[in-house]
TrEMBL record:
PANTHER family: SERINE/THREONINE-PROTEIN KINASE BSK5, SERINE_THREONINE-PROTEIN KINASE BSK2
Protein name per UniProt: non-specific serine/threonine protein kinase
Phylogenetic placement of the source organism: Eukaryota, Viridiplantae, Streptophyta, Embryophyta, Tracheophyta
Record field: catalytic activity: L-seryl-[protein] + ATP = O-phospho-L-seryl-[protein] + ADP + H(+); L-threonyl-[protein] + ATP = O-phospho-L-threonyl-[protein] + ADP + H(+)
Gene Ontology BP, a term: brassinosteroid mediated signaling pathway
A GO term for molecular function: protein serine/threonine kinase activity
Amino acid sequence: MGCLQSKTSNVQSPDEESLQADKPDLANGDQAEQDQVPAFKEFALAELRTATNGFSSNYIVSESGEKAPNVVYRGKLENNRLVAVKRFSKQSWPDAQQFVAEAAGVGKVRHKRLVNLIGCCAEGDERLLVAEYMPNDTLSKHLFHWDKQPLPWEMRVRVAYYIAQALDHCNMENRKIYHDLNAYRVLFDEDGDPCLSSFGLMKNSRDGKSYSTNLAYTPPEFLRTGRVIPESVIYSYGTVLLDLLSGKHIPPSHALDLIRGKNVLLLMDSSLEGQYANEDATKLVELASRCLQSEARDRPNTKFLLSAVAPLQKQTEVASHVLMGLSKNTAPLPTMLSPLGKACARMDLTAVHDILLKTGYKDEEGAENELSFQEWTQQVQEMLNTKKFGDIAFRDKDFKSAIDYYSKLVLMMSVPSATVFARRALSYLMNGQPELALRDAMQAQVCMPEWPTAFYLQALALSKLGMETDAQDMLNDGAAFEAKKQNSWRG
């Protein structure tokens, strides 16, 4: 078989894809569904196991990896919604009903500044939470481990404001306790907007253990009593402000020494030089200082946080992804999609099957192949019988048999058939083998380099593998060849 050099030629398996580069799915209907937060529900363990490829280590997105006490995985549900799945350590919540009740309570708290909780699972010893997926990393990554550019001042102010909005909403919903607020709990959505993880609204275990970070960053009252109170959340907000100001994770005690000594400039991130007015930086430093007061009663409330940070925002009209230098996939669906292209875009395998059945082999009419031009020999008769049995199995949706017959046929044919590869590709998809389907769709393109069907099937397989950006490119290529074909007919 020939090897087609393209952007997909190095695809090996879904495990090798980048887990942080996902974009919304292709079809307009799917996009609308993606944009709506679904109602909270209880998931079956089997569904979440499938979504995370058996809780594969390759799907872990929590920054401490498998070493984290509660690991977070990226997952993809059957409706193609991307989710984050938090898996608690064994026996964190012995009482399943208590866990579900707590999760359902958190699931009722919805806000545009929250990474909303959309479900949970409590089967056997497993305790899992399911939330919206945020594709653009954590605040920790953008502040402490950035690759291309440090987080700009204006974006840091926006983070401070959006977190305050989320906390204020939680307060109004009577969810005043947020556990272990830190830079890992702030994530960025596909637009680059910061959102506060809903996981922090849920205790890490039934015993109420709330803080897993270094004790130097925990509220004084937690160290004294082991209890978390609403004012503890304000203290933790102050530590996040220090992160935003300094670009480093520095202990509050050290930061307060600098502030008291009027050495505010020593606190500031040097990469921000020239990006802010000194009085704005001073106000944010003063707010951090108030949040970090040792006595809980001396700390401000969430309404005060909002009123203090709101005036510091100076570029509210600039989109977050622009401020952060993030690329945003805004490419619309191509308008010139055939019914097959549209079916592939919405990943409707049944519709794809119906269209391939109706099309048959007519796209290859006139192509030189032994199905019509070879001498009538016993070998050709055997080949035609194999094709016939494969087509019958394909028609009857016996896709496993179709794969077997078409595989034999491919070995027998001296000139490969694009349609056979296309039919076997769909059969592989129906059999839950998108990697092999992608290979066959690529081989169909080798046979007929400008055949839209080959591109559309590649798009479908890529989408099944979670590679939506490449899938979008393939849809566009298929649509371009579709338009070319239409224009040639008109001419």
